[in-house]
Structure prediction request, 289 residues.
Amino acid sequence: MTTAAPAPVRGIHVDPTAIVHPTALLEGDVEVGPGTTIGPGCSVLGTNGPVRIGAGCTLIAHAFLNGPLVMGDRNVVYPNACLGFAPQDLNFDHNAAGAGLVIGNGNTFREGVTVHRAKTATPTRIGDSNYWMTNSHLGHDAQVGNNCVIASGALIGGHVQLADRVTMGGNATIHQFVRVGRGAMFTGSIGTSLDLPPWFTLTARNVAGSMNVVGLRRSGASLEAIHTVRWVYRQLYRSGGTPQQGLVRLRTRAGDPVVDEYIAFIEQSKRGICHGQPRAVRTAADSAE
Prediction:
């Protein structure tokens, strides 16, 4: 009778050019790439799943990484940032590895940032060149593109999808399963439980009150493209009727790449898109009339 050989334990592999401070803790299945620096008091825990850190990364001090986690090159992690820990779900087994967290290249995670690994078969994923300011949070199973700026205290719920170049102001919030289009912007202390279309600005709860014209210009958009986005905004929010009626008007210009992006975004929305103006708040006096 034969028995299967146990799975090999990969152990800790640190590139000779990497620098690991004597007080840092590396445990379990961990790989550290060339030129990476792991500072004092950092914990890289590959006991729950493997941790792979690419080249030229910097964990400044007292940063915490938990597997399964794959981190690309040139990422910077500041003190007390916690990446890859279990979702904040009372029904989730915190010892379950799951699909983990995948991080691209050139991201910055400032002090106190938290990013949770996935519950589903698809990892929580962050693209390239995103800037996470202090105490911002990304929930499990979220998908983030490239070149986003997430200001201090911003909260992004589980399963959220952020496209490229999204900017979130301080303490802004996004409800679970919401989609945010390319180049969208959040003013501070504002939240949404509805999808925010590309290049629009959230100015009140669930309200796309304006366009991110500055973001469009910085992205290199042509003047024609900016005018087209303005036309789309007017059709959805300034021409009367509902956003779905505005979608009918957008289809009259199907084939324009800018318009097609909006058509696809709205058609794929499951939560509905943001309103164009605040909804009136009914009071007891209104109900009595």
In short: Residues 80 and 112 are 5 Å apart (CA to CA). The first strand starts at residue 12 and ends at 14.
